[in-house]
Amino acid sequence: MRLPNGHYKTAAGSEMRISGTHGGRSVVDFDWLEEGACCDCRVSAYEHDGDLLWECDYCGGGRAQLVLVTPNVSSTP
Question: What separation in angstroms does the CA of 71 have from each of 8, 16, 43?
C-alpha cells in the first residue's frame, strides 16, 4: 500500500511529509527517543505498508504506523 501525498505522524510524534507528482519525495523528522530507537538506527525515507520503518544492527530497529495529519501536500516542505 502506497500512501498518498500528505503530512503524516506516528503516535510518538515522528513526522513524514510525502510530496511530488508521483509521491517520490519525502522528508522525515524522526524522534529517536520517543520512538524507543537508538542513535544507530537508520530511518527509511519511504513508508512501508503505511508504517515508518527504521533498521538497526544493534537494537533491531522498529516500525510505527503513520497517521494522516494534512492531505495533499503539493510542494516540497
Answer: 9, 12, 22
